[in-house]
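Archive transcription. Copying these from loose printouts into the bound notebook so they stop getting lost. Printout 1 of 2:
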Amino acid sequence: MIAERRTVSNDEASLAARLALRQFQAQRMARTHADVLASPETNAAATFFLSDLYGTEDLAQRDANLERVVPAMEHLLPPAALETVADAVALDALSERLDAAMARQLGPVFSEGEYIDAYRKVTTRSDRTRQIEHVESVGMTLCELVRVPLIGSTLSMMRGPAKLADLAELQNFLERGFKAFKRMKRPQDFVSTVVSRERAIMDRLYGGESRPFELEATAA
């Protein structure tokens, strides 16, 4: 995963195609989930999902940290935090592979119709189903994490050791997710809302709908 990202970063055409794809997908998700982004209670969690789980920024350093976190920090983190990290690694690896295939097909300039065609032609329903399942797993493990006693204090105390171990970005990732989900009264409802919409869009894409992204949004 990291090696592939580094290869792309050294190829301007591939980098432009990947960035265009990520921007399209981030904008589409922002439209689909506009209501949870607008809600004061769910805005932080929705922003975390769009930026930290599927954003346009270069996440190579975080990925490097994620791949070595278990041996480095398993004695510091509770099981729920380690599970969140493991789910994020699995999600990122799969998303990277799917994005690479889509970007090669589309290039840096494409229409919504061309995106839809590429989605159907170069990625499989089974892979897309697993991608959504990983998103759901990350969300639900974060729901469990916020219920761990004293986890907020534990994450705060990790800042120094994480920085010394060159794991500061990973620690920030966990802390951002914790703070975002802690703000919600019913975080599971938020995750269920996002996941149900993404599954509905996937079904519409593979079902041949001409306008697969047009869903009736419901509040989280």
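Printout 2 of 2:
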Amino acid sequence: MRTAILVPCYNEEATVGRVVADFLSADPSVVVYVYDNNSTDETALRATQAGAVVVPEYRQGKGRVVRSMFRDIDADCYILVDGDDTYPADEALAMRMFVGNDSAEMVIGDRLSSTYARENSRPFHEFGNHLVRFLVNSLFESDLTDIMTGCRCMSRRFVKMFPVTSAGFEIETEMTIHALDKGFLVREVPIAYRDRAEGSHSKLSTFSDGLRVLGMVARLFRDYRPMRFFAIAAAVLSFAAVASFLVPLDEYLSTGLVAKFPTLIVSVALGLGAMLSLSCGVILESIRMNAMRAYELELLNYEERYVASRGERFRVS
């Protein structure tokens, strides 16, 4: 397989050279691409010296970098890894066999089942990982362990059919949810994790980036599961409508009059909101199903074009 190592970088001069060298040492046939995201240090120089293909990406944000990588680079297998030297190159390369034998289209390097708890020195990051895992598994009916890992191995089909919409660190969550929603084969493999080396600093803001990730989960839940999303909203509004309606109803049953018209009006408005929310859910679910059919047809067309371009036959597995 033609394997591309994708390394998005921003100010990683202390570690990027070692990352590139480790991958090339483990397998000289791979091509390491370092996309330099407006670094102010010598990240690009260190990567070039180590043997990487260095490409500048001027739009700030990891999601934007990944979007350019997926669009520009042509390969059969893609390994996305951080430039902070926290993942062993040999273990990341070993994940290729699942893509190669068609048993997975995205292989997730699972840190949380390995050494992350011992090596990670940022407790709030671990809490955030567990919170996002709980939300994604609950909302999308999955059983994944590490949603936000920075090490993944992906097939060409997944990469070329993945519409990147996030701009920052929430890209990992978006990739996972997209794979779950579109039915791609996902496999988790435990991978060793080591904390950043001395002199290397994390660019991830625990709270601001964490809130962006949670916002991404909420938006993708709305877009990918609209019936459930709006049904929950309708249930909340219905409960509030019934609770507020009990006050004027009790008054009417007791006196035959309704003096608290504002409460009655609010309860009616909440009930209408619940019905509108449910209607939105039904309509958007129908649109989503049509979009799913269109995506499946486009996926089939992509397979036919790709196989035809390589002069191969379809493999039946």
